[in-house]
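wait is this the right file?? whatever heres the structure
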C-alpha cells in the first residue's frame, strides 16, 4: 500500500511527534492528581497553571489566567459550557423576553444549542452571510438591541476558512448592549488566524486541541472574569467549580505542546503556499471550478479551503480518492451523520450544480508539500474520470 495523503485536517489532525513525546513522558511521571495536597500533586497543579498562562497569552487575555482559562473535553463541550452556562444562569423570564443572535453557518455544536432554545420559545436571530461567508456588520447592528442577551459568531468557518472581523463586531455589540455576552467558536481559528479577546471585547472563546496536532479529548474556553455561568458538570469543584472532574493532565500538556508546534513561523508560510498551489493547479487542470470563501488572503485561514467542481458528486470523488489513499472530505465531519447537509453552500448562495461537487481540503503543521502535490494530482485525475461519466449520463 502506498503512503497515505491526509488532507482532511479540519476534521482532525495527526498528533505531532513533539506532542506524543511530551505526553508519553507525562504519562510516566505526571500521573498524580492535581488536587492532591502532597508535593507531586501540587507540582501537577502548577504545571496546569503554566499551560493556562501560555494559552491565555496566545489569545491576548489579561488578568488571572487560572480563573479565566478552563479546560474541557473539546470544542463541543466548550461551546455548550459557555452558551448554555450563561443563558441557563439567567432567570427564565429574562430569557423568554430577550433575544439571542448567531449566524446561519455555525458548527452544529453551536447551531443546535440555538435551535434547542428556539424550540423552547426563546427568540433567536439567525444572521445571513454573503457569498464569501461574511456577516454584514449592518445586519449585526440591526439585530442587537437592549434585549440581546448573547451573541455567538464563529471566528473561522470550518468549511470556507472565512475569518469574521471579530474586533469590528465586538465594538458594534458592546456599543449597543454592554451587558450582552459575546462568544466565538474559535476551534478552527486557534493558531491559524490571530485573535485578541481584549480588542474584540469577547467574553467567551472556545478552543480545541486536536485541530492543531494535539490530542483528542482536550479543549479549553476563555471566560472573562465576572460572568456567572451555570456549570454543565458538577462534582469535586475543580476549575473553580465551573467544570468538575479530575484534570486531564496528559491532554493539557499535549495541547500545550501542540501550541508550541504551531508557533513556528514556517507553519503559516507553508499553509499559504499549499493553498495557493492547490487553487492554481485545480484551476489550470479543470474548467468549471470555484474556490469558495474569501478572495483576500488577509481575511481567511490558510488551513482550510472548499472547492466546488461542477458536473461531479463530491462524495463520489471522495471515495475515488480514498481508493488511492488520498483523504479529503465533503464538509464538516461533525455533520456526516446529519440529514441536513450543504448548509454552508446554501447559505453563500452556491448553485446546486456546484454544491453537489464540493470538496474540502485542509492542512496542518505536519502536512508536507509532497503530500499536497500527490493529493491534488489524484483529485484532478479522478475528477476528470468522473466528468466523462457526466457526458455519458447526459
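ok assuming it is, sequence goes like this
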Amino acid at each position: 500500500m502506498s503512503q497515505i495523503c491526509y488532507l482532511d485536517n479540519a476534521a482532525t489532525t495527526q498528533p505531532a511527534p513533539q506532542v506524543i513525546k511530551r505526553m508519553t513522558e507525562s504519562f510516566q511521571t505526571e500521573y498524580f492528581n492535581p488536587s492532591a495536597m502532597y508535593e507531586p500533586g501540587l507540582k501537577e497543579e502548577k504545571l496546569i497553571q503554566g499551560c493556562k498562562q501560555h494559552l491565555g497569552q496566545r489569545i491576548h487575555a489579561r488578568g488571572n489566567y487560572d480563573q479565566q482559562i478552563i479546560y474541557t473535553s473539546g470544542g463541543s463541550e466548550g461551546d455548550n459550557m459557555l452558551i448554555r452556562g450563561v443563558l441557563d444562569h439567567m432567570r427564565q423570564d429574562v430569557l423568554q423576553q430577550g433575544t439571542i443572535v448567531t449566524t446561519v453557518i455555525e458548527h452544529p455544536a453551536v447551531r443546535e444549542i440555538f435551535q434547542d432554545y428556539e424550540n423552547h420559545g426563546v427568540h433567536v436571530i439567525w444572521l445571513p452571510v454573503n457569498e464569501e461567508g461574511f456577516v454584514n456588520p449592518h445586519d449585526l447592528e440591526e439585530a442587537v438591541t437592549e434585549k440581546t442577551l448573547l451573541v455567538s459568531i464563529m471566528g473561522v468557518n470550518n468549511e470556507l476558512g472565512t475569518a469574521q472581523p471579530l474586533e469590528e463586531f465586538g465594538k458594534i455589540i458592546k456599543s449597543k448592549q454592554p451587558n450582552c455576552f459575546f462568544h466565538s467558536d474559535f476551534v478552527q481559528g486557534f493558531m491559524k488566524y490571530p485573535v485578541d479577546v481584549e480588542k474584540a471585547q469577547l467574553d467567551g472563546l472556545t478552543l480545541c486541541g486536536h485541530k492543531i496536532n494535539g490530542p483528542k479529548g482536550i479543549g479549553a474556553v476563555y471566560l472573562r472574569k465576572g460572568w456567572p455561568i451555570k456549570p454543565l458538570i458538577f462534582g469535586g469543584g475543580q476549575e473553580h467549580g465551573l467544570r468538575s472532574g479530575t484534570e486531564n493532565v496528559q491532554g493539557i500538556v499535549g495541547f500545550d505542546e501542540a501550541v508550541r508546534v504551531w508557533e513556528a513561523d514556517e507553519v503559516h508560510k507553508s499553509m499559504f503556499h499549499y493553498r495557493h498551489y492547490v487553487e492554481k493547479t485545480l484551476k489550470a487542470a479543470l474548467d468549471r471550478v470555484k474556490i469558495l470563501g474569501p478572495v483576500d488572503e488577509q481575511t481567511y485561514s490558510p488551513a482550510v479551503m472548499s472547492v466546488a467542481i461542477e458536473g461531479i458528486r463530491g462524495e463520489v470523488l471522495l471515495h475515488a480518492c480514498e481508493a488511492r489513499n488520498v483523504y479529503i472530505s465533503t464538509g464538516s465531519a461533525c455533520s456526516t451523520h446529519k440529514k441536513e447537509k450543504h448548509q454552508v453552500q446554501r447559505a453563500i448562495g452556491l448553485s446546486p450544480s456546484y454544491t453537489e461537487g464540493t470538496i474540502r481540503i485542509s492542512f496542518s503543521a505536519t502536512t508536507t508539500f509532497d503530500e499536497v502535490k500527490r493529493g491534488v494530482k489524484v483529485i484532478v485525475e479522478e475528477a476528470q474520470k468522473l466528468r466523462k461519466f457526466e457526458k455519458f449520463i447526459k
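The mean pLDDT is 95. so i think its the right one actually
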